[in-house]
Amino acid sequence: MEARVKLFGHPVHQMLIVLPLGLLTGAVIFDAIHLITGSTTWSQISYWLIPVGVLSGLLAGIFGFADYLEIPTGTRAQRVGRLHGIGNIVVLVLFAVSWFLRESAMVRPTAIALVLSFSGGLLSMVTGWLGGELVDRLGVGVHDGANLNAPSSLKEGRAEARRRPRAA
Residue ranges of the domains in the chain? Predict the structure, then answer.
């Protein structure tokens, strides 16, 4: 099933998710470094990574939702996509609340702010796996003619659907 929204032949959602995932993972890593070292520099970095990660996550989610609406109803892909989307909304809420709790304590986040950050990081690993399941296992967002010798997406025309050769 091909993605609904594409740029230069590639799904926009899959292009955008790397930014929030990297930013929010970075925030978790820097929160951990802050806890280990006690240095407030790391918590300040996390403080600024989180809102950009949440905002870019919302943008990626818009395109993900557009793709989700194209998944046929009653399929396993729709169930996995629903879990993936709802889980990512929870991830963004966890990080957003963590950020709001840090406003008065940017350099020394409260324990609950850190717990929310770490919880968001753990849940994002689950939702990331679900996203991988959608693409790699269920073929959501994959060009219908994808194959090992498909032409560049920048070339005109459609790729011909070919079966992979079976291993002997």
Answer: 6-137
Q: Which stretches of the chain score pLDDT less than 50?
A: none
Instruction: Give the DSSP letter of residue 116.
Output: H
pTM score of the predicted model: 0.85
**The pLDDT value given to residue 151:** 83
| Six token digits for residue 130 | 């679900």
Do 141 and 134 meet the contact criterion of CB atoms below 8 Å apart? yes
End-to-end CA distance of the chain: 29
Quote the crossing angle between the two packed helices 40-68 and 76-102, to the nearest 10°. 150
What residue type is assigned to position 143 of the chain? Answer: H
| Residue 55: C-alpha distances to residues 19, 44, 76, 111, 124 (Å) | 10, 18, 29, 24, 15
Q: What is the C-alpha separation between 102 and 41, in angstroms, rounded?
A: 14
